[in-house]
Design goal:
Structural class of chain B: alpha/beta
Low-confidence stretches of chain B: none
CATH architecture of the largest domain in chain B: 3-Layer(aba) Sandwich
Strand content of chain A: 5-15%
Largest sheet of chain A: 4 strands, parallel
Number of strands of chain B: 5
Order of helices and strands of chain B: HHHHEHEHEHEHEH
Number of helices of chain A: 16
Largest sheet of chain B: 5 strands, parallel
CATH topology of chain A: TIM Barrel
CATH superfamily of the largest domain in chain B: Cobalamin-binding domain
CATH architecture of chain A: Alpha-Beta Barrel
Mean pLDDT of chain A: 96
Radius of gyration of chain B: 18 Å
Oligomer: heterodimer
Largest interface: A-B, 33 and 23 residues
Distance between the termini of chain B: 27 Å
Shape of chain A: globular
Helix content of chain B: 55-70%
Number of domains of chain B: 2
Number of helices of chain B: 9
Strand order of the largest sheet of chain A: 11-7-5-19
Strand order of the largest sheet of chain B: 2-1-3-4-5
CATH superfamily of chain A: Monomethylamine methyltransferase MtmB
Chain lengths: ~475, ~220
């Protein structure tokens, strides 16, 4: 297929097979069930980081078959966009395996990572899926951007503009989007990293709002990115595709966001892993994503640090790492909130899984993004430290450490501690974490060190590695 | 007349497996034996679907199983409605609920689950889908003579549309005719109180309980 496929995608959207959305959902659910059986994909709650290469390859084949059989559902036209096996193979094969994110001295290269890769993970931070108040948003962004181990910043979202709720599709969406983009730009400048990659501004819900964030002077630049979302499962629409058209026209990074739902149309862990692989293929074929956020989440609580979530991350990560050149990034959502040891144990488990399963790192959506201002920089620092410390582990070793992490938080998943908000845990003048949060962080770091992870030395080694830039 | 246990077991299994044709055929057989449609709903349909809903809530089964059971139940409900209509009897439905994602919100899954569970509990549900204008909620509520209107918002940016929709019902002077309830990830009881909603449900099971309470029906708990 051509590198600019959008004209053909619109053509197929207009002329592909018509299907009611509910029928597509049911067909997809049935197909996934068949594929789980056909490819003998099996979830074992005691092996969250499997070392079964053959199952990883079977999982990729299952995802590929799902994508080719179902295609992509365009909600705007109620038609399926279908691709041939050859189109998928050649397009996925030609996808980028490394991208330069950001500019100048702050630019970094994010790479495809193999299973048990020695290449350090890139760390994406920001208020992941967590709304911020207008007053604290600039401080929270700076607190994230100033963390030395953070490579990229997501600008997150606020609900209000000048104290009033933002109305999507109205001028307030445009004004708020532009304001928040400029706040993100200012945050990285204040952090002394003015060329750092900004991966998204999450305020706008519409294509117009996303485009409004682009402003080389005070907003987003081509070296930055914006999210283009998939709707669960394997769905898109013209608003999302129009974002691709605009960004592709001037070389801006397109960030593919998927949220396969565990317990949703894919069913349990095995089916959701198949959907996750297929969603990556969608992100290549329809969105030409520079990199992909693997944002699978539990249907009930929106987290992905339980056993099923961790297993899906590992298996889908390995399947993609072994069979594609794609750059995929985990997207950790925790049940517990800031200022609790549990949130850090959830992050540790997710970070270790990602590091050995071919992924880069993104976090943290504490409290599953439900509590305003429950987000800061230290949890991203911690995630990067753990990920760097996990380099060199085999999958078997990683599995043992992850299983050791689980007793520290698994019992709290039903009734998690929401913890405290940013101003309760940080000094809002100096933007340094307070004693309470630091003591919890230090304690968990010490316990992980005792478990054999080189939490302090791991990142130092990474920073002197020739692959780091 | 009591439903024979053998038929009841077969019907239960057909619903759980989503065998739509078999569930419909068994329902016809029961009607043929003189079982009243309302008894079929209360003694066969609702107990099975309540259990399916509970298993889904406990993550013992997943959305595909819930959807398939819901699809089979919907076919049976349609059959029973037609039977009641022909006999000149009132509907088997416990109430009519208009449901939708407010304007600007394009999310589906959560509302779909609420819709399935409400249908499973004997409500007639008119699902308007996503990105629904305030005027469309009003029009549908009046046309369907709804008892309850459910406004869902997953994103905080969809909250103004939720408030706008309730305001419209007040402006045209029909607010008292309908119970307006809210749900979705961006909402909470405080927001429901602020915008004057009649109720708030944090999840799908609570939405069923809330609707039952508003219709003065006993809760399944």
């Amino acid at each position: 297929m051509q590198t600019n496929r959008l004209s053909e995608i619109v053509n197929r959207s207009e002329n592909g097979p018509f299907m009611k959305e509910v029928a597509f959902d049911m067909a997809l659910a049935r197909k996934v069930t068949d594929l789980v059986k056909k490819h003998a994909i099996k979830f074992d709650p005691e092996v969250l980081v499997p070392h079964d290469d053959d199952m990883a390859d079977r999982l990729y084949q299952a995802g590929l078959e799902l994508f080719i059989e179902m295609g992509v559902y365009n909600q705007s036209t109620e038609r399926r966009i279908l691709f041939t096996r050859q189109e998928v193979d050649t397009t996925v094969g030609a996808a980028p395996n490394a991208v330069v994110l950001g500019c100048g001295k702050d630019a970094v290269i994010e790479r495809h990572r193999d299973v048990e890769s020695a290449i350090p993970c890139r760390m994406h931070s920001g208020p992941t899926g967590t709304p911020c108040s207008e007053r604290l948003h600039p401080l929270i962004l700076q607190a994230c951007a100033q963390e030395p181990l953070v490579d990229c910043l997501g600008a997150g979202s606020v609900a209000t503009f000048q104290g009033r709720l933002i109305v999507p599709g109205s001028p307030t969406e445009i004004l708020a989007s532009r304001k928040e983009a400029s706040i993100a730009r200012e945050a990285i400048r204040r952090a002394g990293r003015s060329g750092m990659h900004i991966e998204d501004v999450a305020v706008p819900l519409t294509c117009a709002g996303k485009i409004a964030t682009i402003d080389p002077q005070s907003g987003l630049r081509p070296s930055d990115g914006l999210l283009v979302s998939q709707m669960p499962e394997l769905k898109t629409n013209y608003d999302q595709l129009s974002r691709v058209a605009y960004m592709q026209s001037f070389g801006m990074h397109i960030v593919d966001l998927m949220t396969p739902l565990i317990g949703g149309l894919g069913g349990g862990a095995e089916g959701t892993a198949i959907v996750t692989v297929a969603s990556h293929i969608l992100g290549v074929l329809c969105y030409s994503g520079s990199y992909h956020f693997m944002g699978h989440m539990n249907l009930q609580w929106s987290h992905n640090t339980d056993r099923m979530g961790l297993w899906i991350q590992s298996m889908a990560g390995q399947a993609l790492a072994r069979n594609t050149p794609l750059i995929s990034v985990n997207d950790l959502y925790t049940r517990s909130g800031l200022g609790t040891p549990e949130v850090l144990w959830e992050v540790a488990a997710g970070a270790i899984v990602g590091a050995v399963s071919g992924l880069n790192q993104h976090g943290v959506g504490a409290t599953c993004g439900t509590k305003t201002d429950h987000t800061s920089g230290i949890e991203a620092r911690f995630q990067a430290q753990v990920a760097h410390a996990a380099l060199g582990l085999t999958r078997q070793q990683a599995n043992e450490v992850v299983l050791e992490c689980l007793p520290h938080y698994e019992h709290t998943l039903v009734n998690p501690n929401p913890g405290k908000s940013f101003p309760e845990l940080y000094n809002t003048e100096t933007l340094e974490p307070g004693q309470e949060w630091l003591e919890i962080y230090d304690k968990v770091c010490q316990e992980l060190t005792q478990m054999g992870l080189n939490i302090d030395g791991g990142w130092r080694k990474v920073r002197h590695d020739e692959n780091t830039f | 007349m009591k439903i024979p246990s053998e038929l009841l077991e077969k019907f239960d299994l057909a619903l759980r497996l989503g065998n739509t044709d078999e569930a419909e055929s068994l329902a016809k057989e029961m009607l043929g034996k003189g079982i009243e449609p309302l008894a079929l709903v209360q003694e066969a349909l609702v107990p099975t679907l309540t259990d399916v809903g509970q298993k889904f809530q406990n993550f013992e089964i997943y959305l595909p199983e819930l959807m398939m059971a819901g699809e089979a139940a919907e076919r049976v409900t349609t059959l029973l409605e037609e039977t009641m209509l022909k006999a000149g009897k009132p509907s088997v439905s416990f109430g009519t609920i208009v449901l939708g994602q407010v304007e600007g919100d394009i999310h589906d899954i959560g509302r779909n689950i609420v819709s399935i569970l409400l249908k499973s509990h004997g409500f007639k549900v008119i699902d308007l889908g996503r990105d629904v204008a305030a005027s469309a909620f009003l029009e549908s509520a009046q046309k369907e003579k709804a008892d309850i209107v459910g406004l869902s918002a997953l994103m905080t940016t969809a909250l103004p549309a939720q408030r706008r929709t309730i305001h419209l019902f007040e402006e045209v002077g029909v607010r008292g005719q309908f119970k307006l309830i809210i749900g979705g990830g961006a909402t909470n009881q405080g927001w429901a109180d602020e915008i004057g909603a009649d109720g708030y449900a944090p999840d799908a099971a609570s939405a069923v309980d809330l609707c039952k309470m508003l219709m003065d029906l006993p809760s399944h708990n």
